[in-house]
Amino acid sequence: WASQGARLFLVARNAEKLAAVAADLRTRGASYVDTAVADLDNTEQHPAMLAHAVNSLTGLDVAYLTHGILGDQAKAEQDFNTAAQIIYTNYMAPVSLLTWLANFCVQRHAGTLAVISSVAGDRGRKSNYLYGSSKAGLSAFLGGLRNRVDREGVTVLAIKPGPVKTAMTASMKGSEKFADADKVAQSIVKAIDKRQDTLYVPFQWQPIMFIIRHIPERIFKKLNL
User: Fold this and answer.
1) Cβ within 8 Å of residue 14, ≥6 positions away
2) Is 131 a catalytic residue?
3) Closest CA to 127 of 201, 77, 69
4) What span, in angstroms and rounded, lies between the C-alpha atoms of 32 and 57?
5) Per residue in 161-216, pLDDT tens?
6) Among 93, 94, 208, which residue's Cα sits nearest to residue 156?
């Protein structure tokens, strides 16, 4: 997007990293870059922050949400507060952002909301069912939102990546074999340009998850997934 001369508004928690990314995007050709430091778990700040972003950009064509945490599954199994934090960050906070953004786009009869969900949301597994259930809820929300706003000219893209090599997954076993973030990003940009509804990325996750979703429960519950 930067190389295409896009106007960008970036939001992140870490001011130093945010400034570095903004500087890099200006070097890459972005025509305008503004930023805001915020913890998006603080939903009360969302309306003011989003209004500031729209005013700064003098409009909004694409909102790209990549907000979430893996969380500690083992700890969440024993402690409700840990489980609640995973669900709040991965589901409640994005719902807050999307509610405001969807209403803004509906008023304009235009716009794309592109949101990172996960293949983990397609079926609950014992290894990550707190993370997976939060993403399942988000995917269901995106489906319903799409059904509501598509007729108003607004696109809602649910992005379902498999494991990707990022800071969030660096400590996971086998992370060196995960998908390359740059290639995943290219697929996401293409899906946004095509106004797709859903994107499994890399592409092989679509047939993989189709199979996993259709394994009978009497068999699935005995699998070590």
Assistant:
1) 37
2) yes
3) 77
4) 8
5) 998 888 878 777 777 788 899 999 999 999 999 999 999 999 999 999 999 999 99
6) 94
Both structure tokens of 39: 């913890």
Residue 184 tokens, joined: 């995943």
Answer for the pair 150, 190: CB distance below 8 angstroms, yes or no. no
Q: H or E stretch including 208?
A: helix 205-213
CA distance 96 to 159: 18
Contact criterion met (CB below 8 Å) for 179 and 161: yes
Please, what's the b/e burial string for 1-37 (b: 16 or more CB within 10 A of its CB; e: otherwise)? bbeeebbbbbbbeeeeebeebbeebeeeebeebebbe
Does the pTM exceed 0.85?
Answer: yes
**CA–CA separation, 148 and 106 (whole Å):** 10
Neighbours of 126 (CB within 10 A): 12
CB 197 within 8 A of CB 174: no
Closest CA to 61 of 128, 112, 6: 112
Instruction: Give tens-digit pLDDT for 53-100.
Output: 999 999 999 999 998 999 999 999 999 999 999 999 999 999 999 999
CA angle 110, 196, 213 (to 5 degrees): 135
Do β-strands 62-65 and 198-201 pair in parallel, antiparallel, or remain unpaired?
Answer: unpaired
C-alpha to C-alpha distance for 26 and 49, rounded to whole angstroms: 22
Longest dimension (CA), the chain: 56
Q: Which of 64, 88, 131, 200 is catalytic?
A: 131
Amino acid letter at 193? D
Cis peptide bond N-terminal to 161, omega within 30? no
